[in-house]
Structure formats: C-alpha cells, structure tokens
Design brief:
Elements lengths: L7 H22 L7 H31 L1 E4 L6 E4 L3 E3 L6 E3 L26
Antiparallel strand pairs: 1-2, 3-4
Bound molecules: zinc ion.
The site of zinc ion (ZN) has 9 residues, from loops.
Amino acid sequence: MAKTYSNKINKIRSFALALIFIGFVIMYGGIFFRESPVIMLIFIALGMIALLFSMVVYFWIGMLSTKAVVVNCPNCEKPTKILGRVDMCMHCREPLTLDPDLEGEEFNEDYNKKKKISAVKSD
Ligand SMILES: [Zn+2]
C-alpha cells in the first residue's frame, strides 16, 4: 500500500507557506485594478488577511510542536515529532503510533478521530 499520508506538522507548515503565496498573489492581483483604488484596496486587504492568517497558522504550529512527542524513528533513526495517536515520520514517512493498542495495525489517520476506542490522555 502506498504511503499517502504525511507528517501532520509538515502538512500544516506547507499549508501556512501556501497561504503566504496566496496572499502575495492576491495583493499582486490588485495591481490590475490600479484605476479603481477601492478594488485595489480590497485586494490588498484580502492579501493582508491571508498573510496574517498564515502567521496565525505558524503560531499554531509552534503551539502544536510543544505538545508533540519527539521520538527516534525506528526506521530511519532520526528524531521526529508525533502529533495525535498516529502520525508519520517527518523523514521517511514511517507510520508511528504512541498507542500500544494500535501497534502493528494498518496505518489509518482515522484513529485520531475515532472516539470509540477509549481515548488515552497522554498528559
Ligand atoms: Zn523515519
């Protein structure tokens, strides 16, 4: 089975990076409306909102990173961060889990959402 999931922190980080690009593209789009300052201002404002939002996302990553558990990946032996019950190694995409019950199970991101399996509070 192809490993299509990626590490959550990396995923959020690339989302924040994409937002920065989107913000700049929107602001750049405002240049095409130079004749109407109102529309241009709207574009710039929207671009600024996207940039601000990406900063919020970066801040959020920082918060998440403090909660993530750092482990050494058994596959590539590099330190990686696990978020939630199952996550992937940042380097080699090896599925990792903190829950012994899920050890050896097929990797499934749904394990993070399912409430049926008694949620173990890690802190
Ligand atoms: Zn690894």
